[in-house]
Predict the 3D structure of the following.
Amino acid sequence: MAELDKLAIRGVRSFDPREVHIIQFFKPLTVIVGHNGSGKTVSGTRLTQTIVECLKYAATGDLPPNTKGGSFVHDPTVRVSGSRQLAGVDTVKAQVRLRFRNTSGVRMSCVRNLQVSKKKGGAGITMKTLEGVLGVDDETSDPQSRAAISTRCAELDVEMASLLGVSRTIIDNVLFCHQEDSSWPLSEPAVLKKRFDDIFEVTRYTKALESIRALRKQRAQDVRVDEAELRALQQEKERADSVQEKIRVLERALAQKVQDRDELDAALQRKTRSNEALYSDAMRFREVLSHAESLEERLALYTEHRDTLLARTELVDASDAELQRMVDQLPALLASQRERLAHARSRRKDALSERDTCTEQHDALLREHARLEAAAQALQHMLDEGAAALLEISENVPAHPNVAQLEAAALSLDSDLRGQLRDHNARQALEAQQASKEEAQRESTHASLVKKHHDLKARHEQMRATLDRLRTRIAACEAELAQGAPMTDAGALDAARKRRDALQQEHPASELPDVASRLAALQAERDTLTQALATASETAQLRAQRAQLQQSRDEKERLHKERDAQWRTECSERLGTIPNDMSVALTEAQAAHAAAQEQLATAEEAYLRTAAQEEAQVQRCQEKEALVTRMCPRLTQVFARRFRPCWATFPRLKKDCAPPTRKSRYFATLWA
């Protein structure tokens, strides 16, 4: 049982903050007596505090009613002892110290501190709670153990209630009840019941009883449901036992069928490996043939190129020293040819400038000729007008002995003028003819210079190609001498032909019909085995065929790309361009290849659709068989007699989709 020992008060209400007032509590009872206003309970002013309020504050940390603004602490503006004021003091600290023994008999000490400060300007006060300390104040306790705790590391109010051995409600309403709240036993029934429930702590027991009642009701319902499920499960178990026996019989039959299927799969795999070996031999033979054909094509191309080079190249019958001397003299020859080419270009430039000058002169002569023709036409027109005027005058004027002379003079003048005009025209024609001849001569000179320029350029390119070829031959000869073994295309071609002849000897043409017949027999046997398998086996075969087709297509595409790139490279190097007819053929071949790819994609889509339909059909068959197996034994027997032979054609269904081991509640209801 807890006991109160001493209470020390300082700075609370009317208690002097400079002195500590200590009250000793005695057993079994301590009575506080005094006249009115001595501090037993509450004095007439709001600045005093009773010992009971200090006890409650020390035990619970709650301030009295209406003291939140700082009225619980001594006001710094109030005079002390009626004689003087706390001059120059703006802050007052209050302390309540309680020493007691807890329920274990250990003496404890609880200290709570408050502080009141005047606001700036003297317009009021503010109060704040300082750190409180709860410690052990017993001489018999262990000095090494922890002696004190503060509000910074634990909840002081909770610890005080635990140490006093009573609840917070009893402390507030019974032990340290404020005088203003001491009439709570006379309050309303609802409030009174709530206070008594809090005092006796019956609320949690009431909630526990309600939870127990609800849980009991729920458990009773669960028991009834579980009993119904148990009866249904017992009936299901009886039926499941009979079905399990049938399942064991079917599983033994299924194991036998699986063994048969495994044997057929092993035979099929042996045949497949044999077919793959034959197919690989055929593919190697085809590769050798294609390689030999490519080598022959390269030989033909090289032969054609050699013939072209021989036709364009002049063979020099000279020794190596003479050839080396010619090679050494080749830079000087190239330099002289470059000088001749530069001289020819300068002459061509001069001829072009001279041609431009002659062209300008010719244009000027043409303009002068046109002007003279216009003047001649004007003169002829004037002569015609003069002759007409003379004729008119001769008709109007009578005859005169000088008329004949005038006519003769006019005729002579006319003939002279016409002669001068003819001479002028002849000179113009002669000059034009001479200018044309000079222009033709210049054009022929320019053409000859251009031809000589092209010839020199061709000879320069030919000499450069000859030099490169000689260097290449020298490097090849040096490499052959260094390696000690010739490596030429002719040798590679001969080796390829020898390999082809060896392969043809290993697989002569007479054996091809036998191989074809054996392949046909094996294919027929494989078809027979395939018909004995299920749709899943057909799907596997389709997948294998698709993989082979894909591999063959990839190999053909690779060979096609390599040959096409090699052919294009050789044509570009040897011929300078790709022939038009071959380009058309290549375009058509590419279009056919694209069409074949589209057909292959369509076939793959059809294969995927067929596989999906087959899997869906297998799933539907599985569901139907499970439904029939669950419905009744009679239908199971009919299914086994009519559809069990089809079961062997579905290896995946036999392996992955075993009959069910239990029935659902829905099929149990249908069974009942």
Remarks:
- Strands lie at 3-10, 21-24, 91-101, 107-118, 125-129, 133-136, 148-150.
- The first helix runs from residue 51 to 60.
- Residues 242 and 633 are 9 Å apart (CA to CA).
- The mean pLDDT is 72.
